[in-house]
Amino acid sequence: MTKLSTLQRRLMKTPEVRKEYDALEDEFAELVANAKPSRSNVFADLALPYPDRELARAQLTLQIYRIVKKRRLTKTQVGKILKLKPPHVSMLMRNWSGKLSVGRLMEFLTAFGQDVRITVKPTRKAQGEMSVVMG
């Protein structure tokens, strides 16, 4: 038996700890019961401004990350290709892309030899949506 499980068993015998644990367990069960299904856009779920744009940025950044990993590029090599300084490469690889625009991320993808296509079409909704389709 591990030290952690021994400690946990000992603490659960303490009335104050057990009471707090039970209260948290009830609160957690209520949270789970009231949980709403995701709309497939975590940024919209969090009610962030411009959720479609944020999702597009995240998807483009993920694609850049996948290319870098697949090609086993160093940060120095990525910096030369994208014309970025090493700290900015590190931030990009950690998806801390700051305020890099969707356009700038698309430029990075083309620098890696990827074709990027933008399609504009009418929608039946009051406002259109942005999406990234990987292929």
Report on this model:
This protein is an all-alpha fold and 135 residues long. Among the domains are: 3-33; 50-111, Orthogonal Bundle (434 Repressor (Amino-terminal Domain)). Helix content is 59%, strand content 0%. It has 7 helices and no strands. The protein has helices at 3-12, 15-33, 42-45, 51-71, 75-82, 86-93, 102-111. α5 packs across α6 (86-93). The longest helix is centred in the middle third of the chain and has 21 residues, at 51-71. The protein is flat.
Keywords:
135 residues; mainly alpha; 434 Repressor (Amino-terminal Domain)
SSE blueprint and pairings:
Blueprint: H1 3-12, H2 15-33, H3 42-45, H4 51-71, H5 75-82, H6 86-93, H7 102-111
Helix pairs in contact: 4-7, 5-6
SSE order, one letter for each helix or strand: HHHHHHH
Output the structural class: mainly alpha
Architecture per CATH nomenclature, i.e. the level-2 architecture of the domain at 50-111: Orthogonal Bundle
What's the total count of β strands? Answer: 0
What's this, in brief?
By secondary structure, the chain is an all-alpha fold. It is 59% helix and 0% strand.
